[in-house]
Hints:
The protein has 409 residues and is α/β, with parallel strands linked by helices. It contains 16 helices and 14 strands.
Amino acid sequence: MSEPVRYLSPEDFDRPHPVHAVWELTLACDLKCNHCGSRAQKARPDELGTHEALDVVRQLAKLGCREVTLIGGEAYLRKDWTTIIAAIRQAGMKATLQSGARNLTRARIDAAVEAGLQAIGVSIDGLAEIHDEIRGVEGSFDRALEALAHCRDRGLDISVNTQIHSKILGDLPAMLDQFIALGVKSWQVQLTVAMGRAADNDEVLIQPYQLLEIMPLLFSLFEKGRAHGLLLIPGNNLGYFGPYEAHWRGGEDHTHFIGCNAGQNTLGIEADGTIKGCPSLPTSVYAGGNVRDLDIEKIWNESPELAFTRNRTTADLWGHCQTCYYAEVCKAGCSWTTHTLLGRPGNNPYCHYRALQLDARGLRERIVKVKQAPGLPFDYGGFELVEEPKDSPAAPVKKAGHTRLPVLA
Length: 409
């Protein structure tokens, strides 16, 4: 069996280039998710036109990109989305879609398949009640499952993507059973990140110490899923280096997390042509340029905003991550998670190994919101990291000369 096109070869590591591009075709969206990092709702006023989008396809192929994933908002709300899918395929790249699927109708699916779409991931964030609450539209759960079933029937590779938020833990086992019954082959899970509307609605965020509960639960689902032909995949902000790492991060190869891949083999494109090293990163800090001004190749090769992980060393780390045993390899994990939480990368409290080490010392970490986000796409506010006894009573926490009431999960 051939390797997936996203599989990174030794040559890919030796010569960083965009193997996988994630492209926000439009910011228009038909859901109202209260954890949406991009605050998707209306199309950007200056989104790329069809001719410009087709030139982006040409440039990606020239750079050796092997897969392009279309996202939004909702990519299918652009009238030319199937034209872009067809161009991606004609350029020799794999075309995939990530969607909330509220209005991904049979007709739209059929048109995408005819254009050459090969795989789809549908976002599902709980069973019906929780999913519809999080996504902000009643009936969106049922519509997502209907779309998955029709995609399966049309021969697409189907997967599910789920955000691990504070309301979902009790739903996860039943979700696995439902996905197995649907024939889903892979299920990627990642933590909800303090960006956009999730920064506004911070009650949906997991507390770092909850990883001690979450990771064993997810691994039990991984084992059950594998027995039924479904692979549960931990996202890049979920981990790291706990007792399950070699089993589910690397599969039979028994590899492990190797650090943030933004700007090394991944590329993010916003609907107005802004280029980032990862589609999730805050635009205000990590935008490397725009395709209307510069070729993607020039942005990739010369922009420091895209090259930051290529140049990162342990000297860039701080807090617990600076002295961690795995610092040289991990380099504080997901930059998106840490920057939006604490205002800069390099210190990641959402680490299983770290939570275990603190727990063994009778401690835990907790996040407390201290600054509101400004209300822009891909924005973030500010959080304070509190270290405290793991069995702390519900009492004021004193820190840096002031008193703050604890926020309990």
